[in-house]
Amino acid sequence: MIVTSPAFTNNGNIPVKHTGFGEDKSPEFQISEVPENTVSFAIILDDLDVPWVKNCYRAPKQPFFIKKEHRYVFYFYALDTFLEISENSNKQTLQTAMQGHILAETQICGRFKRHFYG
């Protein structure tokens, strides 16, 4: 399974419009070479530089005191079932529910550094 984005390349910079300083909208993703018996997908977004958990897409937006670049990894999982968990479930609940149902997985990493002006 392969994931790409027209918004940024793997390890490339996430455009401001896809951050909390822009439109706060998820970038578009394209998934190819999906296993034939895929029923659903799960996506986890991790900020490798700050260990907070995101349950829904909230664009990268570092607090004002963080000035270094952050790495945001979007993990994609092809599943052989629909998971019966709440949309408000946390990462641990999702990972537990996915056990034994993952057909393929892939990831794409984007980087973002808040720019300071003035």
Cα separation of the termini: 44 Å
CATH class: Alpha Beta
Mind telling me the CATH superfamily name? PEBP-like
Can you name the CATH architecture?
Alpha-Beta Complex
Largest sheet: 4 strands, mixed
Number of DSSP-assigned strands: 6
Rg result: 15 Å
* Helix content class: under 10%
CATH fold group: Phosphatidylethanolamine-binding Protein
> Per DSSP, what share of the residues sits in E-state strands of 2 or more residues?
25-35%
Low-confidence stretches: none
Strand line-up of the largest beta sheet: 2-6-5-4
Order of helices and strands: EEEEEHE
How many distinct domains? 1
If helices are DSSP runs of H or I spanning 4 or more residues, what is the number of helices? Answer: 1
Give the overall shape. Answer: globular
SS class: mainly beta
Chain-averaged pLDDT = 86
